[in-house]
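S1.2 Input.
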Amino acid sequence: MSAEKARGARRRRWRLPSSPQEWTRRKLQVLLAATALVVLALAYGVVTSVVVLWEVDTTPPQQSPSSERKPLTGSDEDALAAAPLPPASLVDAQPGSLSTESVTTLALPASRLVGAAGVPSGFPHTPEGALAQLVAIDRSALEPAVVGRAQDVISAWAAPGGPTADDWSGVAAVALLLSAAGLPATGAPEMQLRLDPAMGFIKGTVGDDFVVPCVDFVLTATIGSSAPRVHRVAMADCQRMVWHGDRWVIGPGPEPAPAPSLWPGTPASLDAGYLWLEAPAWTD
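S1.3 Output.
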C-alpha cells in the first residue's frame, strides 16, 4: 500500500457526528468512545489469510548455541501485525460488569532514563520492555492533548518508514478530540486527559528485535473548571515495536490490526487475552 493510501485509511477511521444537534445530548460520551474505538476500524482492509491471536507464537524461537539466527522477513512481521484480534463494540469500551476470574499479572519494567522528547526510556531489550515503551510513548503523546506535542513524540520515536507526524493514529486521535470539543490544536485548560495502562499482552514476536505489544488503557477525561465532569472509557493500542540501537521505537510498516478497546476486568477483556499490568511508579 502506498503512503498516500495508508494516510487516507488512517484518517477514514475517525468518524464523529458532524451536526451541532448530535452533540447536545451525549457529546462527551460519544467523543471519548469514538476516540477509544479509533483502532477498532479496519485501517488497511486486510482480507488475506490471517492467524488469530491464540495461534500466534508469543515467545521467541528457541535456538541452540550453535544454530544460526533465522533472518527476519517482512512477511513474518507483516503477518503478525495484520493478524486480527477479537472485535469490540462501543458498549464494550465503557464501564461494565466485572469478572471474578483470576487473571495473570504482567509486570512492566521501570524506566531508567528520560529519552527523546521527554519520553520515559531505558527499557530492557525484552517483549515486556517493548510494551512498557509503547505505554510511555502513548501517554507522552496523548495526555497533554496538544497536536504539536503528539507530533513531536512520534517524530522522535518512530523508525524510518514508520508512522509520521502527518499520519500516526495518535496524532489523529488528539486532533479529533480537540476538533470535536471545539478547542484549538494547542489544547485548553478545561480539558484534561489521563491514560492509565490497565491491561495488556504481547501479541507476538519475530526474533528478538520485533514485538507487537498491545495495551488497554483507561482514558479519563475531565471537562470544565467550575463544575468539572469526569468521563472514562477504555482505549487500546497495538504497535510494531523494533529494537533500534539501544531502545524500542515504533517500527516501519502499516500500524497493526486494531486492538479491542475493552473495559478492564470485564469477561470480554479476559476472553480477549488481556492480562493485568503491574506498572511501576513512572506511569503515574
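S1.4 Remarks. Confidence is low (pLDDT under 50) at residues 8-25, 36-72.
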